[in-house]
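> Could you send the Pyrroline-5-carboxylate reductase prediction when you get a chance?

Sure thing. Input:
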Amino acid sequence: MKIGFIGTGSMGSILIDAFIHSGALLPTDMVISNRTIDKAKQLADKHTGLEVAKSNIEVMLKCDLIFLCVKPKEYKNVIDEIRTISLDSQIIVSITSAVLIEHLEEWLPCKIAKVIPSITNYVRSGATLCMYSERMLEEDVRVIEDLLAYISKPLRVDEAYTRICSDISSCGPAFMAFFLQKFIDAAILKTGISRELATELASEMLYGTGMLLTSGGMDPTTLQQKVSVPGGITAEGLSMMENELDGMFIELVHTTHAKYEEELAKVKSLF
Ligand SMILES: NC(=O)C1=CN([C@@H]2O[C@H](COP(=O)(O)OP(=O)(O)OC[C@H]3O[C@@H](n4cnc5c(N)ncnc54)[C@H](O)[C@@H]3O)[C@@H](O)[C@H]2O)C=CC1
Ligand SMILES: O=C(O)[C@@H]1CCC=N1
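Output:
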């Protein structure tokens, strides 16, 4: 089976790298295209045998399963280009939250999967959020999830929860890195600790915390309880954060959902 990638920007190239490094795919299994062809060529220079197509049409003509890795506003151009040569036997995997399965089904005759990856997949961890159109057969779903399992934990979610699941799984790494950055900056400002040491400590801490919350079998509440001795320093810090951050995460969810609605409307208006 030939796998295509239309769009080799940040997420497209992360997926290609991860599939190759994990052994899920060989470079020769894939055909890729990108608006700026040099970006695709740079990937091919890194992975001998990876074929760069001259156009998105060429990818569609050569592949059975095609990942669409472009931004919402770029869907219109791609769909217009490929719709007349798309086949109902082909599987399109769209990685964009703000493009609905029902719209992709309206625009293309193909079987449609919506899979939201995460930057964590680069190091073969984190989830991939999986949603499928009714056109997908059991064996199509198996092909996709077998592939994704090399680089992630594929989790089936209801499309109605795409936004909040992506907030946690895909935006989450950036949000957590932001918190870490603020923590490190404050540590440097208040104590004079070196950035290098503070960053190393913070990164190791987040890695270990992630392990405790997955293979370690702890949930976030238990973890907090285990670290905070009643009346101790952690408890004091947690209590301060409870007051300072009250409402912030509600606001965060409002913000991401408002932006999502805006993008959904924009995509719809383009067609
Ligand atoms: N970056 C991330 O962590 C994640 C991104 N996504 C989704 O992936 C999608 C792509 O995001 P990024 O890779 O971050 O964006 P990006 O801007 O880095 O990559 C998009 C690529 O598409 C190419 N492109 C644009 N129009 C094209 C066309 N007509 N034909 C072929 N190629 C074209 C661009 O040249 C660019 O290389 C977005 O919808 C985003 O929401 C999903 C999960 C995580
Ligand atoms: O739009 C999304 O849901 C994804 C999450 C990170 C970037 N884009």
